[in-house]
Amino acid sequence: MAGANPKGERCILVHDYEVTYILNPNLADEDVTATTTRVSSLITTAGGEVTELKPWGGKRRLAYPIEHHRDGYYVTTKFRTTPPAAFGLDGQLRLNDNIIRHLVFRMDDQG
Q1: Residue 108 pLDDT exceeds 80
Q2: Topology (CATH) of 14-106
Q3: What is the DSSP string of the chain?
Q4: 1 confidence band (pLDDT: 50, 70, 90)
Q5: Contacts of 11 (CB under 8 A, 6+ apart)
């Protein structure tokens, strides 16, 4: 999405987003790292910027079973990008078999 600033120059809307995803508990540690790196590269390839990457530290118990899994690796990533790129990331995460659940949302600037 593009607009114009007061000087009449074109500008691109960039928002802060956060994605939290749960990885398959049967993954090896290197596969967890590789999937986390892949998600970060999807963001940067689409023109975004990863501002914070926070693995939750090992396997965690899920509140309820997801795809017959009782545990999973949680990862939260904060990033800045355009709305179409965030929508595209959501679609890419849906196709990744290592990710059993994810949520991408726009951070609210009004605390």
Answers
A1: no
A2: Alpha-Beta Plaits (3.30.70)
A3: -EEE-TTS-EEE--EEEEEEEEE-TTS-HHHHHHHHHHHHHHHHHTT-EEEEEEEEEEEEEEEEEETTEEEEEEEEEEEEE-HHHHHHHHHHHHH-TTEEEEEEEEPPS--
A4: very low
A5: 2, 3, 4, 5
